[in-house]
């Protein structure tokens, strides 16, 4: 019995053909499903429904003007809003005391440093909110950290944790606006260099 030739291809295995990457054709794109036709008020909603919504909206507006706004104003005048001024003083007074104690011997007065502290906070908050600039957001973050440190250092020892916590809460409420849209998820860009440009 003779041994089979090892160089002959086995007929059970199909031949392997390769093509160059530059000759590969990407699969055709599937067409996007058709978009639904937008609703046109005058064509798709009956006139009676539009009239009913208009009447209900007018009644709600009149009730709000006649009853809701006076009740809201009356409620506002009977509320004790001292908590807001007390919260502000809980944050601002220790900051002012800290600046007074640590500006001795400087050409900058404690009052000027306090005004700068307020101005930097307001401007960085506004710029962060409207522009989303990285520098403004970093300034807002540094302002918040410095504020918490100053309040912790200068607040009375018995109320120090509460004063620092209220400062953190005030800063985080401002951060809802200053840091809006900020995401900690990494943004990954994929580039296919083998795909020919169209």
From TrEMBL:
Compositional bias per record (Basic and acidic residues), positions renumbered to this chain: 1-10
Pro residues biased stretches: 25-36
Keyword check for Protein biosynthesis: no
Region ranges (Disordered): 1-40
TM region positions: 45-65, 104-127, 158-179
Leader peptide range in chain numbering: none
Keywords: Membrane, Transmembrane, Transmembrane helix
Protein name: Integral membrane protein
